[in-house]
Amino acid sequence: MNFGKYEFAPVVQKKLTDLLSYGRMPHSVLISGGDGRLREETAEYISAYAVCTAEDRPCFNCRACHKATERIHPDIEFVKGDPDSKKQIYSKKVLDELTEGMAVRPNEAERRVYVFLDADEKLPAVSQNALLKTLEEPSADILFILTCKNPSFLLETVLSRCAELALPVTSDFSAEAVALAEELALAVTDINEYKLMTVAYKLTDKTIASQALSALRELMGDCLLTAVGGTPKNPLSAKLVRRLTREKLLGLISTLDSALKKLESNVNMNLLSVWLCTEFRRIIWQK
Ligand SMILES: [Zn+2]
How far is the CA of 10 from the centre of ligand 1 (A)? Predict the structure, then answer.
């Protein structure tokens, strides 16, 4: 499968390949987890796959692919929410209008694609039920793509009709926080003990500290996965696991959880840095 301009992580590429290359195209896909931008890009990618006219789909060369990635393909609709509703929800009115259009044959492609972004927030139960009628009697020329952060907000009946593509959880940490987290991770594994102290003292701002420690926790989780043979999401993990055993990683993660709890209360940031250094060192240097 071609991924063109889409810079999906290997784990996402694998999930897309599993979903699309074997067997038939599903009638409805639920893209869950990840962050909003990744969910939307994945939906756009699948919509291009659905309309591409080449043999090896999606080719990103044919007219259909170009139209899909430019969001001007007449058979792909990123459904717009109800302008009369404050949160632009996909109201019953929106669904009723859509259902009328669904009876019409696609214009150019083999199928029509309807994308509902943020279905957990914007697709109320009444509209899910309206959608269910079509989901239960799927037509070969219609594909529904729903995206959501949390599938538990969708009706069981809707979920059971969808092929789910669960994206890895990524958090919206600021670039500064991510950089600090990576600096901390490298300092933890540095032979020079003072490195850690110097970096830990950069944890002065509560908001950034909280994001940095959460990002570090995520990175340690990725290391754990890498340690048991998984594909690292962050290339840094491959380097870090050479110095961190599974036990040490678990120790670091539990320390980070305690630190994040402390941050929620009114902790003094200097004391927190000192405490973190002591705990991290104890974990790293213990035999
Ligand atoms: Zn194409």
Answer: 22
Q: What is the mean pLDDT of residues 125-151?
A: 90
Taken in order 136, 36, 89, 48, the sign of the CA dihedral is negative
Structure token pair of residue 200? 């830990």
CATH number 3.90.580 is the correct assignment for the domain at 175-285: no
Q: Render pLDDT for 13-58 as a digit per residue (tens, 0 to 9).
A: 989 998 998 767 889 999 998 888 889 999 999 999 999 999 999 9
**Residue-range domain boundaries for the chain:** 10-167, 175-285
* Section 121-145 average pLDDT: 91
Can you tell me the distance from the alpha carbon of 171 to that of 174, in angstroms, rounded to the nearest whole number?
A: 9
Q: What element of type H or E holds 41? A: helix 36-51
CATH superfamily, domain 10-167, is P-loop containing nucleotide triphosphate hydrolases (3.40.50.300)
Q: Ligand 1 mean position to 111 CA, how many Å?
A: 14
Q: How far is the CA of 6 from the centre of ligand 1 (A)?
A: 14
Instruction: Name 271's Cβ contacts closer than 8 Å, sequence gap at least 6.
Output: none
Which two tokens mark 244? 């961190």
How far is ligand 1, taken at its centre, from the CA of residue 36, in Å?
Answer: 25
Domains 10-167 and 175-285 alike in fold: no
Ligand 1 center to 3 CA (angstroms)? 11
Residue 76 CA, ligand 1 centroid: distance in Å: 14
* Distance from Cα 55 to the centre of ligand 1, integer Å: 8
Measured in Å, residue 47 CA sits from the centre of ligand 1 at 11
Taking only the tens place, the pLDDT of each residue in 222-275 is: 898 888 888 888 889 999 999 999 999 999 999 999 999 898 888 899 999 999
**Distance (Å, whole) CA 204 – CA 47:** 45
